[in-house]
Amino acid sequence: MINNYCVLSVVSTAEAALKKLKKSKIAVYDCRKRGAEFIFGVKDKDVKKVFAIFSKPCYNITVVEKSVRKSLFYGLVLRAGLAAGAAAFIAAAALANFFVLKIEVSGSGSYLKNEVLKIVSDEGAARFKPYSSFNGSVATGRILALPSVTFCNIEKRGSVLVVDVQVDEEHYGAVSSKPLVSDADGVVRSIVAVCGTAAVSAGDTVKKGDTLIYAHTVSGEETVKCLAAGYAELECKKTCEYFAREENDENLKYALSSLLLESETVISHTYKTVPVDGGVNYVIDFTYLHKVSINLT
Amino acid sequence: MKLLEQILSEMGADTLKSFTVIPRFGGYFRSVKSINEFGENKIVLVLRKEVVTVTGEKLEVGKYFEEDIFIKGEIKEVKIDK
After folding, report:
1. In this structure, which CATH number among 2.60.40.2000, 3.40.50.720, 2.60.120.260, 1.10.10.10 belongs to the domain B16-81?
2. How far apart are CA B12 and CA B6, in angstroms?
3. DSSP-derived 3-state class of residue A257
């Protein structure tokens, strides 16, 4: 039986024992007789007092059962090492739950692991760092901006941060791992590197074949390979010729409209006419914005 | 409890000397000065002016503190003698 009090046995009549205990204002519990013994329970704080009351040798008083609280206390004292170890384990387990000890990237977009790890690291998640310092919503938004990513879920399972990244099946495997290179000579107007590292900045002059976005990132002194994703707008120059029978406003309009390039914008132009056999040649010098991109859907 | 106290008061009883018996469970007795007899089938309680004899089966003292006593067991009869 589980008792919250100490069970004692005294060789005495129940009436006499209860009279003495009542006189001393000690609460007694579960009193019963067992042969010549009177068995009763008292609270731990009253045990010493009860032994003092029945201190005469004619009363043979013994402890039958210690209280659960006292038993636990003595049990823990005797097994101090075990108790300390258990307490340390519970504390360590509870403490570890507040920290991120491992980061896993799963799903069909796991080939973007380097980029994903870089993003979650930027947003405050790293091994042995508290999870509370991690900005999950911003990290999710940045991961969704990665090429072909259609779904991202970040959750903490125990001390492991699991990042589930899914990519569009149509684009799965169609991602280029090469850097973004310029396909024309020009001046960089703007550059946006979603992933990777920009190799040039606005105002730089580039030639065809020059790298615009590297397929790696620099973390401290370490260079980590990753996908290059982003775009650059280049200001390019070009000269075109247009033949017309004669020089007039209408033919000039046709000459200029021949400059219209697919998804490119003409910024400025100058022209001159050169007489040739049977008509004139419009020679037009113009500048236009040319956009090059990589791994953007 | 308030209702019980009100009934006892209207009947002219002293609530401090009241007792409650629950069949097949036990009984709660107040104003007990001492226990004159203690046995499995009989417990005799001495009050200020009365002696209460509780008879039954498997009687035990569940708790006894100051002048209140809780008797566990199947109480079959409570007799009051002056």
Report:
1. 2.60.40.2000
2. 10
3. helix
The Cα–Cα gap between A245 and A17 comes to 136
Element (H, E) at B4: helix B2-10
Contact B64 A27 (CB under 8 A): yes
Domain presence at residue A89: no
A32: contact with B, CB 8 A cutoff: yes
Give the whole-angstrom CA distance, residue A102 versus residue B53: 74
CATH number at residue A271: 3.30.1660
The letter for the amino acid at A139 is A
ipTM: 0.79
Give A-chain residues touching B40 at CB under 8 angstroms.
32-33
pLDDT digits (tens, 9 = 90+) for A144-175: 888 778 888 998 888 888 999 888 766 555 66
Alpha helices by DSSP H, listed for chain A, are 14-23, 47-53, 68-78, 80-96, 113-122, 136-144, 249-257
With a cut of 90, say whether residue B2 has pLDDT above it: no
